[in-house]
Write a structure and sequence with these properties.
The protein is α/β, with parallel strands linked by helices and 177 residues long. The two termini are 15 Å apart. The mean pLDDT is 95.
Amino acid sequence: MLGAGGGLELRTFAQAQPHWRFDGVDPSDAMLALAARTMGEDARRAHLHHGYVDVAPDGPFDAAACLLTLHFVPPQERVSTLAALHRRLRPGAPLVVAHMSFDQHDGARARWLQRYADFAVSSGIAPEQAEHGRAAVAEHVHILSPAQDEALLREADFSGVESFYQGLGFRSWRALA
């Protein structure tokens, strides 16, 4: 898993597939420590690697996931990141990615970012805090359009690229190595 984060997804995968082994990569030691704690007993089936995709073992892996991570990767680095994932997968293996992705033209970006803040407020976040979050996302998160995201997956040599989920500015794709 590229972007092991706090380990919630790794724990879910491990509980669903008790015979699988996992590798997780994350640039934050604190997040890797949290992932190990979150996984509990299942952490013994995982190797957690500090760094970026280049520190991941060569594979070949049977599948990969990159959840809520790619929107932090600068656009000019995404193809090389995706290509590095592709090289580590066995032919035909699936990759699942999910991240912020929405239209960037004709005021759409501003509307989606406002929806992000409005949703936070409707969930109980103070309006000032939601506005601060919206501004931080606008400044620091590299959001592309769905067409751009799909093109990058294809440029990294993935095939069968198809979107399977969309909700509140987030989109997910499945692609094959």
